[in-house]
Specification:
By secondary structure, the chain is α/β, with parallel strands linked by helices. It is 48% helix and 17% strand. Strand 2, helix 2 and strand 3 form a beta-alpha-beta unit.
Length: 323
């Protein structure tokens, strides 16, 4: 690939060996790669320098969105005629075939701003939480509403909407996709492997914090774009508030008057059964998935409350980290 055609932005924070594996998987010249570090206390910057890639050492406040924007700006400064940028998180490895397939596709579709593929979990068998991540990333092929953090973007389209919203601590990729779609661009998911991710989630507490962060993102992005005709996460936000907060609160209040009202908690068991039965014929881990999707509503509601509590107190940006 021509250096002026494509560049790569890698972002990371204390990724250790995962970052080394990530940089080692990149199939283009190191001069076309920028690594952006968000306050690592390990040797991430030194490791990136050993690969010969340019580096950007950020100072706080840190967000993945800001890191990607800074990486994009650094690439464009060195290569002003850059047409496409591949963003990849430092805990992922790039599939060696991906860049060729993605650039071939996006060059043929002038209406497409972002191309993404299948992100796979490196070791889904190591924990139920890693398996859940792998299921989460198995998104439908074709035109999409949004994508995750690994993506190939058309540089002109990215610049047109002023990149990621650097103030978001999560959900910045769907929010970018929303603004691109409002501007008339399309997002496309190819039927191809793109990256291999190391979630490294071994404990329930890590899964819980990650899910809280998801609820926080739903609340923040929904608030930003509540009136948008292509808005996202409205239904998901409603479900998190209803099943994670309002319904349990009503059941507890009713139980103070009539103890038998606690039997209404069986609604959650019924929900697990419904989801498990629907998924069972054609999906892996149907019952684990059903149980955690139902439980996730409580963590998501906590994230919603966390967002609005921060808003009320006018608190500064604060990362929600699960690793």
């Amino acid at each position: 690939m021509a250096g002026d055609d494509i560049g790569i932005v890698v972002i990371g924070r204390n990724e250790g060996k995962r970052l080394i594996d990530c940089l080692g998987s990149i199939p283009i010249d190191a001069s076309c790669v920028t690594y952006v570090d968000s306050g690592s206390t390990d040797d991430s910057l030194q490791a990136a320098s050993r690969f010969g890639v340019s580096t950007v050492d950020l100072t706080g406040p840190y967000t993945a969105a800001r890191a990607r924007n800074e990486g994009f700006a650094a690439l464009k400064k060195r290569r002003p005629h850059l047409r496409f940028v591949q963003f990849i998180d430092g805990d992922c490895r790039l599939d060696p075939r991906w860049l060729d397939m993605a650039t071939d596709f996006i060059k043929q579709r002038d209406d497409v701003a972002i191309v993404c593929g299948r992100r796979r979990e490196c070791d889904p068998s190591s924990s139920v939480y890693n398996r859940l991540c792998d299921i989460e990333w198995d998104t439908p092929v074709g035109e999409a509403s949004w994508c995750g953090g690994d993506l190939l973007v058309r540089a002109d389209a990215f610049a047109q909407v002023h990149g990621f919203n650097a103030q978001l601590i999560a959900g910045e990729e769907p929010e970018l996709c929303l603004r691109l779609r409002e501007a008339g661009w399309r997002i496309w998911r190819l039927d191809a492997d793109m990256t291999y991710h190391d979630a490294a989630i071994r404990r329930f507490s890590q899964w819980w914090v990650r899910t809280v962060r998801g609820g926080y993102a739903m609340a923040e992005v929904s608030k930003l774009h509540w009136r948008s005709p292509v808005g996202i996460w409205r239904l998901e936000l409603f479900r998190a508030i209803l099943f994670g907060g309002l319904l349990p609160g009503l059941i507890c209040a009713a139980a103070l008057i009539q103890p038998l009202a606690v039997a209404a908690l069986l609604l959650y068991i019924a929900q697990v059964c419904r989801i498990g039965i629907v998924r069972q014929p054609h999906a892996a881990e149907p019952w684990a998935y059903a149980a955690f999707v139902t439980l996730a509503k409580f963590a998501e509601f906590q994230g919603v409350v966390k967002f609005y509590w921060r808003q009320l107190r006018h608190r500064p940006i604060e990362l929600i980290e699960y690793k």
